[in-house]
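Re: the multi-chain job from yesterday

Posting the exact lines I submitted so nobody has to dig through the queue logs.
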Amino acid sequence: MPKRTDINKILIIGSGPIIIGQACEFDYSGSQACKALKEEGYAVVLVNSNPATIMTDPELADRTYIEPITPEIVERIIELERPDALLPTVGGQTALNVTLALSERGVLEHYTVELIGADIHSIRKAEDRDLFKKAMQAIGLSVPQSGLASSVDEALAVLEKINLPIIIRPAFTLGGAGGNIVYNREDFIELVAKGLDESPIRQVLLEESVVGWKEFELEVMRDKKDNVVIICSIENMDPMGIHTGDSITVAPQQTLTDAEYQILRNMAIRIIREIGVDTGGSNIQFAVNPSDGRVMVIEMNPRVSRSSALASKATGFPIAKIAAKLAVGFTLDEIPNDITKETPACFEPTIDYVVVKAPRWAFEKFEGADSRLGTQMKSVGEAMAIGRTFKEAFQKALRSLEINRYGFGSDGVLKIMQMLKRLPDRHKRDIIEKELFNTREDRIFYINVAFKMGWSVERIAQLTNIDKWFLTQLSEIVEEGRIFSEDCRKGGLTADNVRSMKRLGFSDRQLAYLSHREELNRLYDRGPEVQKEYAEALKNLEDDVRRFRMEKGIIPGFRLVDTCGGEFEAYTPYYYSSYDDDDETTASDKKKIMILGGGPNRIGQGIEFDYCCCHASFALREEGIESIMVNSNPETVSTDYDTSDQLYFEPLTLEDVLHIYNRVKPDGVIVQFGGQTPLRLARQLSESGVTIIGTSPESIDRAEDRERFAEVVRKLGLLQPENGIAFTPEEAIRIAGAIGYPVLVRPSYVLGGRAMAIIYDETSLTDYIATAVELSPEHPILVDDFLEDAIEIDVDAICDGRDVYIGAIMEHVEEAGIHSGDSACIIPPLSLSAEMNRQIVRATEALALDLEVVGLLNIQFAIKDDRLYVIEVNPRASRTVPFVSKTTGVPLAKIALKVMLGRSLAEFGLKKMKEIPYVSVKEAVLPFNKFPGVDTLLSPEMKSTGEVMGISGNFGESYYKATLAAGDSLPLEGTVLLSMNSRSRGELREEARRLYDSGFRLIATEGTAQYYNEHGIICDQVHKVSEGRPNIIDLMKNGEIDMIINTPTGKMSKDDSYAIRQAAVRYHIPYVTTAQAAKAAVHGLLAVKQNKGRGLSVRPIQEYHREVR
Amino acid sequence: MTEKAYLILEDGATFEGSMFGYQGETIGEVVFNTSMSGYQEVLTDPSYIGQIVAMTYPMIGNYGVNEEDVESDRIQVAGFVVKEYSKSYSNYRAVDSLANYLITARIPAIEGIDTRRLTLHIRDKGALRGGIFTDPENALSRLLSHPRMEGLDLATGVSCQEPHDFGAADATLPLVGVYDFGVKLNILRLLAASGFSVRVYPSQTPVERVVRDGVRGILLSNGPGDPNAIPYCKDLVRDIMKREIPTFGICLGHQLIGLGLGGTTYKLKFGHRGANQPVINLSNGRVEISTQNHGFAVDFDSLKNDPDVEITHINLNDNTMEGLSHKKLPIFSVQYHPEASPGPHDSRYLFEQFCGMVAG
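And the result, structure tokens for all chains:
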């Protein structure tokens, strides 16, 4: 059956900002869907608030709305665009939720918009717990039994129907707080009572526990002829009880017999039919009892998901693209398999390798967060690795995570071992037991240590519930390491022992450590003062191993991901490395450039860099150069097999990258676009003879080395905040005293705001040195003058060696001292004088030319007392590149790439910075709702996971829209709570007055209320938490407060204001914690309030871009 | 370390690995199977007689072996080739390791083989004779003196010696006679589950005898080897047709029906062996994901002009014939394995179809 001709225009809803649980996999799926539908000749309208996505590139859809994804906004877009159909299944939960809301409001019916992919009925059936349960029971499948209770008596009644163990989940608590598993009646009563107290609505959900059961996922596709295929099975190594996003997962499933697997397959087919997903993909989760094979259906996502992105990358089958084609009427047998070309997409991929996905967490960013893993996802990213065996894939996955580990232990990281060493045996045992039982991010390394200490598979299985098959595999890795170590002690490296270790996935770093384990351990034991020496010794040994391998010709070959286990010829060059006998790469004479991607998402390095890498690849294609992509992140567009000419799904370590480099022999490597990951490799790659394209490593060093950079700044007559470097605590105190408090301090050896702090006095400095950092002659700390209340400016520019094109000057909403990634920012700047603008342009040009930048650079400036300070220069792609590109319509990354290849800016007609007659605001999205207890104050340490953009004709509305897109609906009427430090009271007097004049009720804590009442702004005083009831928190609970302005100082008000901020997150009340953000928010909501009759504007970026001059 | 061993093909290609099953040598036709699970079913499938099977999925042995997932009473393959044998196994039904299973059955197996290189080699060169050797000396001449699969009647040899009932005979149920050319147990299980009393006959049983027993339908089973080499097969099929007994052919049985109808069979380059082959049912346009295991096929062209023969199923990968039926006689057959095992259950409706045909 051909595609449908009765529809022409299709609306696609994206997933919005990157948040925990919803990351760039939806850019991947959305981009595929856009491309697939455009390819078929449909007009595509897209809405997505996330500017850092490939899908919001103006070429991908016909009309692209970078607008908040709320029912109201999408309704306006529908009203304007009148699409025939809406595809709700490629934008994650966000798109499904908005679609449900649109349906409930009757919008779809009113404008006769047809849902394609999944209809309302099936979305509801899959999403609604009760309906889903009934649907499963109707087809004879089991689901965990559950019930709601509002009292202990009701709970006991539920207990009659459900078998213990039971999970008790208090309803509506943040991040699943208060959930517990109970095994007996006594605990049950106690914990139900506790759960009821914790729930704001005094209700608990009681659910039959399947914790510890094996967990499987099946990716299913169905077409309108009712053909159903399973694309991939995935087994979670961490069993039920740990969110699949936080589990190490393996494809295909490993521990079920075919008969058992077919039971799941049959169930999956019945489920997709029963739920009624007519065309497209679904993800179905099952729990299987390891002792008797009993199966329960856990859930079904009637849409593409994180797991379908993983399944696509794992098999080479492009689920989202095919789902989009099925949605417009094609059937599976009509769509060709892109990889084999001659066979159809109507089949089930079979793979001849093993895929392992490992999650990446960021707990270090969230002081006080509960780092135990459970049913609520906490990881911020993931890495995937492919190997010919489980061991190979597993070790590659761990070294892909970029957590400074080079495999499954034995990599010279001795922290856990060292910590345990000093303890008595009993204590040691207790710690390991606890770490194995309470899953936390480094449990896998505790398993490693447990094996090294001789623990049995059975014992570890009992504590972790991990299937013995996986544990045996892990124990074999440890055992092989031990044998190798012994061998080396006796006879050093041999071709045989090295080759067999490489086949088990060991990295050179691991072999380096194992080959000299005892010497290295002894060296390490000498304490922190030899750390540097230890690291160097390890590094040198690693180089030795590599040299040995090269001499012996022990190098990996590259194998194809071909969907069919080798049965048919594959035409798509999608590779992974393995130490088999063969290599399937083919040589070509074309000029080739290799792009190093960003690896797993983490805070500070996310989709923005993947966007840049994709653009680098697109630009290479436009220039007729073969693009070679290297990355390990399965969520991304860059790891789509048709983004680049060749794709290598590999860890981004020196060893792995050099293997590809030596095999492909590209004409150069690009390290500028993938964030810190490739940049960290730049020097070593260059030392290994690799040609780095663009800004030279020497220039990068001049920008990054503190002293050399100070020289540049001095030479150019620019200003830097006063600074110094301290090697001892005494020195730090002396330098800080000389500069004058407040100072900004940070360790010299970490990047991205890790452990950075603003220090207001000597006591805090001493405190910081004692707790937050390790200060030693090897690890000095940097002390900078902190420019309080300075305006922070970001600039993205391209330099071709002769000219400099400034993409945009961005003004931050929050003041300097808050990480730029967490601050809202504005294009064009609001408060800069023409003279200051000129100064910024001149400084940017001077720095770019002096540093001999070729390609992108990002500069952070601060302005204080009308003086311009240079904070830092990064000669590479920055987080703001996509935001600037979406705002101005100039594809910075693409042009930069072409400049790096030797073109001049003049060729693109780029000289003067563009002027835009509208205002674009980027706002950060923070994950505090996943980490109850973590203070929400912003700091120099970046915490945001994603970003959104608001765009309109004026700042107020743009800011309002950005805030709305980030999830906070600023009130247009109601009550605003003010609780401020004395300084911001004065600063925000005007805003308070305007709020009051516009009819808002103001309530405030004592000091603030007094201040404003004295200034004629009527303010009701409210009790602080300690002052009796009803207090602030009661009001928040009762929904009496619509917005909170809370600016804290020092430690004094911390407790109370901390409680306010926690409650704000819990009850989802918009809040701001800086005076600048408060000003912007008030400005924004008043602008929209005054505009109320007209509502918020919506307009595609293609139209905005036409106005750029 | 276990003993070093070699997989050597008749064109000289050599793969080094180590033994993990029975320590011995073996020769056969080397074929690859792309199923990711179900190695026990594959090993015990009589259609693999005379073949050395390489699994393209690299991790084999993970769930051990159990008592239920067998397709005959013993291991049938001539040898087994895997990338990595998993010594440890984990499954609640497992009773033993795969290695012990192979050792008990005296079946040589080799691991550490780059099975992907092997697969690409076979894809390129076609099915080849090969052997697992501990001593590569003279391997080639031994391989070349081993008979090729073409022209080999392996089915007659594997067939049962005496007629026997599968399960307890039940006179209240319609009796189906299964011509055993190496029948998989799951075919018998599914026939029984479809409400038949099932009796298995040696492949050379005269139809007359079967009719005398009162069968209401006949199933021509799967089996190993070259269909053309079974000397009595055409007469058998024609005799059945003459008597208009409802008949269902699976795999080899399908090929025999093709031959009986006057068609011809040929050897595929490297065959279809796996559990992911898309087959379209031409009567309703629906696609079934099927299990397949065949090296020979019925020539499409040899039957397409016969007005009485209807092609019912086609393989979407290479457009080969996957099923046929007779327009006038109650006969139909499929090249693939509706009983699966291992593999998807998409095609089980064919057993119901057979039921309907028998019920008339």
